[in-house]
């Protein structure tokens, strides 16, 4: 009996051969029984996850499908966890058929999953505020996914357009994701008249600001440089943004090991371009970080590599993972969308659900593919989406 049972447990192909050989025999010895016992115990205890896949619109469908191929290949190759993606057809087509972007019981539907992998929402023939509020913003607020985390890093093989960033960029952006300028408060009166009025009211609550500040300080503390910049606009916004600053200063007292500073959002754009090395973790409001994260993505090489996590840090609700980009009307259907942002979002999802090792292996594969120059056109390459998927899958196979 040369083969020991435990050797099989994480090698799916060899395990299968062993099962066939052992099951084909007429009698079983102690080692065989131990083998079957260990194998089935391992199968039963293997981490197993159900993920809601909501590809949405435009290139969202392309990058989510690309990512599912890669993550399923990873799970099969490593054999250390199981993952099932269940397709949910919400988006503009669903809206055209039903009059809604999501089903009526959509929050209960999502709560049945361990996490959500999201593509993008937005279509040229539906106003953007209808599509965004109909789907993505209808999820973020009610599920209290209040922390939007956006890591930004220059990948091997990709070019940072800044000559001021000699070592590339490695930032962590934290965006308040449940209130602020995107609270949805306001209204319009006298529509169409000369004297028409429209208000867009930004809402800042002490609870909302405090929880995102704590999250940001904790994030900064977990990174080697322990450095946080609080982005504000309290010179001209004299109510909500002043509360924002005051809460930041109070929360900072609980994090004496984190060095922090405060910066007006306009000056922050200059700092990101002129002094990128002075930045590590950034926290800002819903609107400010929406804008700054697109700038950060462009500085890292392309919006096509920028991931994001919409987290409920209390873990009462499933968190949602998505690329920063939208549905990209100009390249939809051309097969050239960069899938890296969604790969990276899926890696962040794996970390969140407890598969840190698998996530780091996945990112290693993606980085090796980028370093080899297998890139989509947004990064100056000539590969298409499927070319990048195939190259990453080949790298994943080497992990087996
Ligand atoms: N999270 C979301 O679902 C989300 C985010 C942003 C915009 N949107 C929606 O998407 C639609 C289009 O918005 P937009 O044009 O302002 O932003 P966008 O992110 O869709 O596209 C901006 C530019 O970046 C390029 N780009 C984006 N992702 C890319 C990728 N993966 N690979 C290569 N190039 C990529 C596009 O081709 C385009 O030139 C609108 O309806 C908008 O409301 C949705």
TrEMBL record:
InterPro entries according to UniProt: ICDH/IPMDH (IPR050501), IsoPropMal-DH-like_dom (IPR024084), TTC_DH (IPR011829)
GO molecular function: NAD binding; oxidoreductase activity, acting on the CH-OH group of donors, NAD or NADP as acceptor
Coiled coil: none
Domain Isopropylmalate dehydrogenase-like: 50-392
One Pfam family from the record: Iso_dh
Annotated Gene3D superfamilies: Isopropylmalate Dehydrogenase (3.40.718.10)
Family, similarity comment: Belongs to the isocitrate and isopropylmalate dehydrogenases family.
Protein name: Isopropylmalate dehydrogenase-like domain-containing protein
Origin species: Penicillium fimorum
Lineage of origin: Eukaryota, Fungi, Dikarya, Ascomycota, Pezizomycotina
